[in-house]
Design goal:
β12 and β13 (226-231) form a beta hairpin. The chain has 10 helices and 20 strands. It is globular. Strands 1, 2, 6, 7, 8, 9 and 20 form a 7-stranded mixed sheet that branches. The protein has a 4-stranded antiparallel sheet with strand order 12-13-11-14. The protein has a 3-stranded antiparallel sheet with strand order 3-5-4, covered by helices on one side. By secondary structure, it is an alpha+beta fold. The chain starts with a strand and ends with a helix. The longest helix has 25 residues, at 245-269. The chain folds into 2 domains: 2-170 and 289-410, FAD/NAD(P)-binding domain (3-Layer(bba) Sandwich); 176-280.
């Protein structure tokens, strides 16, 4: 089977890349390991779009035009919310994972993207002027070819398959994974400081593990439904390795154990929780950081904090550095004057490889910068750029034209 572009992964970045390229006339095939798109926003139940809006005072302003703005509009129509909400110094848009899945299906269908769910890449290699990818679904293998590839896997899977330049932050400094689960049957229950105090009391009395201290709940926008979120250490038995099956398995079972114990405790102790129950588990724990490509430009923490702009910027990073290197909650560092940093095209182009582009949380950057770039709003923007770039490369167009083509197609950023 032959395509112009093959996209690995249908998370926020892969969805944007595939749909954008297909709308420009490309034949696109997407390989996605789950049975639906959305990545962290669906499989891991992360229920807010972060990074869509610029920092600073005043009303919310979209950071990146085109696909990110379209996703915001479609989600608002789906949820019926009036708009984004201010949380501290940042604007976020509440999203519902069920609606995200439906919207992604619509986008694929409307744009003509061919999606291969339950599929993963096993091997990739050069094939003439393009690439050949061997994919597998439940033991059955298929060979796919394309002029260009987009790695939106989140874990830089393609870099590993090709033996290409990539890097990983040491285990102790990796951003800790999130575990998010759904709860139904909450009727005007405790929240905020009252809920935090209740959990602290449960830990003090020995009814809850100390690992539960970071647990918090947020309304989904649907009657009686909330999402619980907690950061896991990832290192219950040895060093945290988000690419190791054993470690990932412990995350899943450990997260479920903490969540079930917490909901059971709150049913007994907290007002409004008597009829509460865990209604859905995530398909997978939310890994925030793992392997990253080394590209022609490695965006640094310093560049993000200074709000640096580049001649070949393809998107803006509109989220503070959100460090979660421990389970004690986030540490936010904001850029100078709340100025959004530019993400140059070189971050999407692997060093020494042509015909491959990268999008999402595995783009070329250092550990500090990744703490800003990994959020879904920014992933939509880098995915959009990767889709345009991949199609351009398939048609033999120079990569240097990509920033101009983005401006012509979607308008100027900030």
């Amino acid at each position: 089977m032959t395509a112009d572009v093959i996209v690995l992964g249908a998370g926020s970045a892969g969805l944007a890349a595939a749909v954008t390229a297909a709308r420009e006339g490309a034949r696109v095939i997407v390989l996605e390991r789950h049975g639906f798109a959305g990545g962290m926003g669906t499989a891991s139940l992360v229920h807010t779009f972060c990074g869509l809006y610029l920092l600073g005072e005043g009303p919310p302003r979209l950071a990146n035009p085109g696909f990110p703005a379209e996703m915001a509009e479609r989600m608002l129509m789906a949820t019926g919310d009036s708009g984004p909400v201010k949380m501290g110094r940042v604007w976020v848009l509440r999203q519902h994972p069920v609606e995200f899945v439906r919207i992604a299906d619509e986008l694929f269908r409307e744009s003509g993207v061919e999606v291969r769910f339950h599929s993963e890449a096993l091997r990739a290699e050069r094939a003439g002027d393009g690439w050949q990818v061997e994919a597998v679904c439940r033991g059955q293998r298929q060979i796919l070819t394309a002029r260009t590839l987009v790695d939106a896997s989140g874990d830089a899977v393609l870099a590993e398959l090709l033996g290409a330049a990539a890097e990983r932050t040491e285990s102790a400094r990796l951003q800790r994974p999130a575990y998010v689960f759904g709860v139904q049957g909450v009727a005007g229950g405790e929240e905020g400081l009252a809920m935090a105090g209740r959990i602290v009391d449960g830990v003090r009395r020995g009814e809850l593990s100390r690992d539960t201290l970071g647990l918090h709940f947020r309304s989904s926008g649907r009657a009686g439904e909330v999402f619980g979120s907690i950061d896991l250490s990832g290192a219950e038995e040895g060093a945290y390795d988000p690419l190791d099956a054993g470690c990932l398995s412990r995350l899943e079972t450990g997260g479920r154990l903490l969540a079930a114990a917490a909901v059971g405790f709150l049913k007994r102790e907290a007002a409004g929780w008597a009829t509460a129950y865990v209604s859905h588990w995530p398909v997978r724990a939310g890994v925030r950081e793992s392997r990253r490509w080394i590209g022609r430009h490695v965006l640094t923490e310093e560049e993000v904090l200074r709000g640096t702009r580049h001649a070949d910027d393809i998107a803006l990073a509109a989220w503070p550095l959100e460090s979660r290197e421990t389970t004690r909650g986030p540490k936010l560092r904001f850029p100078d004057d709340d100025r959004a940093a530019g993400i140059p095209l070189g971050c999407l182009m692997p060093a020494g490889l042509d015909g491959i582009f990268v999008a999402g949380r595995c783009i070329s950057c250092d550990h500090g910068a990744q703490a800003s770039l990994r959020v879904m709003g920014t992933c939509f923007a880098t995915g959009q750029a990767a889709g345009i770039a991949a199609l351009g490369a398939a048609l033999g167009q120079p990569a240097g034209d990509i920033p101009r083509r983005l401006r012509e197609s979607f308008g100027d950023r900030e």
